[in-house]
Amino acid sequence: MHYRNLGRSGLKVSELSFGSWVTYGNQVDTVAARELMAAAWDAGVNFFDNAEIYARGGAEKIMGAALKELGWPRVKYVVSTKFYWGLGEGPNDKNTLNRKYLRHAIEGSLARLGLDYVDLVFCHRPDPATPIEETVWAMHQMIERGLVLYWGTSEWSADEIRAAWSIAERHSLHKPVMEQPQYNLLHRKRVEQEYARLYEDIGLGLTTWSPLASGLLTGKYRGGIPAGSRGAVESYAFLRPRLTDEKGNEIVGRLEPVAAELGCTMAQLALAWCLKNPRVSTVITGATRVAQVQENMLALDVIGRLTTEVLAHIDSIVGSHFD
């Protein structure tokens, strides 16, 4: 495992990290989470991603219980959470990034995780109803209280990120350090085009999610939705149209010989392709079985095989079929 700086910060995160979206609280309980996290840890993973909304707080509780049982030194691992959707139904605890919500949200997450602080907090989506300046001040104060070390955004536009950074710069506040966007072979424009100037201008780091396009890029959905897969989870039925997309699965079929020639699986090829981008600080992986964790980690061995010629061939297969 190699470690990359999170953007321009001094924090180092493992190239591959481990996340809890979809799985924790739906497919994975505390016992399984402990085993999966231990397998990732043994491979060198030091960053574990979470969010308040995942399983409506359940994912944080499961991760917190697993961390307590694993007993790792706190300095050795990095934990994140994300805020926006909230867990309540009131005007100030749902779909907001206002100061009041954020104050209570961090306290709730820390209680569920059983931690004194979290390393990374993301504003999970932009909030057009709250001035960005209010959100920036709230995140700054969260850090000043010692509850968070770094803050960033997830799925914000380049203009919104730059506005937040500029406000922080103007008032000498803690600036957003990282963004968590979707990034994979079929979803590339935001990372490669929209954010292009932010990497040098403000030192933006990326903790990218969905490197396998929710599983599409593994090839397992070419024949439909298999039982026990992410696509079969009823609460994530909204993923099914994308997973069964005819053109996407056709591209996967054409990429499979490339993976075979490189001596790897489609999942490993997709992960290595994401890591080939030097702007990516870490790629968040997910799994429900220890064998999946171990298979994903082997993607690290594939990065060096992605020569300029191989990357060009992959681009020729994908063509313009990405968003």
Largest sheet: 8 strands, parallel, barrel
Q: Enumerate the strands of the largest sheet in spatial order, edge to edge or round the barrel.
A: 3-4-5-6-7-8-9-10
Radius of gyration from CA coordinates: 19 Å
Query: What is the global morphology?
Result: globular
Poorly predicted ranges (pLDDT <50, ≥5 residues)? Answer: none
Write down how many β-strands occur, each being a DSSP E stretch of 2 or more residues.
Answer: 10
Return the string of H and E elements.
EEEHEHEHEHEHEHHEHHHEHH
Question: How many helices in DSSP terms?
Answer: 12
Mean pLDDT: 95
Give the CATH architecture. Alpha-Beta Barrel
Domains (count): 1
Helix content: 25-40%
Structure class: alpha/beta
- CATH topology grouping: TIM Barrel
| First-to-last CA distance | 30 Å
CATH class: Alpha Beta
Give the DSSP E fraction (strand runs of 2 or more residues). Answer: 5-15%
CATH superfamily: NADP-dependent oxidoreductase domain
Describe the structure.
The structure is a single chain. The protein has one domain: NADP-dependent oxidoreductase domain (TIM Barrel, Alpha-Beta Barrel), CATH 3.20.20. A hairpin with a 6-residue loop joins strand 1 (about 5) and strand 2. The strands form 2 sheets. It has an 8-stranded parallel beta barrel with strand order 3-4-5-6-7-8-9-10, surrounded by 4 helices. The protein has a two-stranded antiparallel sheet with strand order 1-2. It is an alpha/beta fold and about 325 residues long. It has 12 helices and 10 strands. Helix 1 packs parallel to helix 11 (about 290-295) and helix 9 (about 245-260) runs antiparallel to helix 12 (about 310-320).
